Amino acid sequence: MAENYDLVIVGGGTGGYSAAIRAAQEGLKTALVERDLLGGTCLHRGCIPSKALLRSAEVFRTAKNASNYGIKAENIELNFSDVQTRKQEIVDRLANGVKALMNKGKIDVYSGRGRMLGPSIFSPSPGTISVDLENGENEMLIGSNVILATGSSPRPLPNTPFDSEYVLSSDHALELTELPASMLIVGGGVIGIEWASMLVDFGVKVTVIETAERILPTADEVISKEMMKQLQKRGVEFYIGASLDEESLQVEGSVTATIQQKGTSQQLNAEKMLVSIGRTANVADIGIDNTDIVLENGYISVNEYGQTKESHIYAIGDCIGGLQLAHVASHEGLLAVAHMSNKHVEPINPLTVASCIYSFPESAQVGLTEAQAKKAGYQIKVGTFPFAAIGKALVQGDEEGFVKLIADASNNDLLGVHIIGGHATELISEAALAKFLDAAYFEIGETIHPHPTLSEAIGEAALAVDKRAIHM
Length: 472
Hints:
The protein folds into three domains: 2-153 and 280-340, FAD/NAD(P)-binding domain; 156-277, FAD/NAD(P)-binding domain, CATH 3.50.50.60; 351-464, Enolase-like, domain 1. It is 31% helix and 27% strand. It has helices at residues 14-25, 40-45, 47-64, 80-104, 170-173, 190-201, 221-233, 326-340, 370-375, 391-396, 424-436, 441-446, 456-464; strands at residues 2-10, 30-34, 108-116, 129-133, 138-148, 152-154, 167-168, 182-186, 205-210, 237-240, 242-251, 255-261, 264-270, 272-275, 279-281, 295-296, 299-300, 313-315, 355-357, 363-367, 380-386, 402-408, 414-420. It has a five-stranded mixed beta barrel. A five-stranded parallel β-sheet has the order 7-14-8-9-10.
């Protein structure tokens, strides 16, 4: 059976379902194909469940330190089963919300695996989606336009597959029924650091191995150093500039790993190992070979509007590489729908996109790092302001960290903002708006920030560029 649509979307994650909702708002007859769970990685195996666990870790840490706030709390205990139950309740509630939005938009949702066909009796153009439904039947969806939003999956070590018991991906770690006594984390990027922060707060002995010369290698260097310092104070052990010897890896009842660091080898032991070395695009078996779509380094190649080489087929989200962030995938979906609807759209400027780390401490950034700005040839000036000088930070009991602001010395443009400290992931939106509006750094400094708030640190950092900060 064949059905005709204005738009067929393959993948029901954040980018896919956002695009479907916007298409429905634009009056397009829309179908969405999802092989797994509506809501995708972000809702079921990424952003939401991991942040739910991080919140429980935060509450546990705060409760154990209640005496710092003049509160006596005894016999604080962690019930990890209840933590997981709370996580799942949040996921289920949001998943039901996505289903309701699909119904509201009269979007046809097909549960099954979708695959693109080449030119056929259904359409002279490639891109008809053949859907193998869960009930064993097949549907042919013919779309005037198609959006591929197939996402990504955790990347395993080259020669050691995930086994879900001892060698874990972040997907597996989210489903732990019991906390291990110790965890070896391979990879000190965003995912690895969030898990390190969470697990150490839950009382797990955590060791992180990172091949680069610092954790969070894409962050500003001072942010990386501060993050590592604060995690070390809480008990996380780091091996930086170290490589894992896979040939000697032993996985039997526990994990024994040998690492090479500065010409010496060392053996590390842990109950389990979490591998967080990146993600790979889900592009296998979706019919790429039936089209002229080009893959580059394993990702679907698109132009600035998300169009593939087949102009009526778009691709968004993790499967195209770039900024693999849920909020970026969502915006890419909206942009693709606007473009296929012949509306004027502005391509995404990566320098206006904020990225966040939800560890403790939190960290967030937008724009260029200091190293990137210098490499790009900018003459820069920098302002830094510590949270320790902010009244609200002291009230919160979370005074470590700072705001760093980078400006163009020649024209005063804001180049980048980097925050590490309490509620950094909320504070960054002010900086992102400033970047989007192409603000000058001093305009942030002249903005009247309410007192007492953590946001005052951003205003003070802007003033600090010209050594005019008030409270430092």
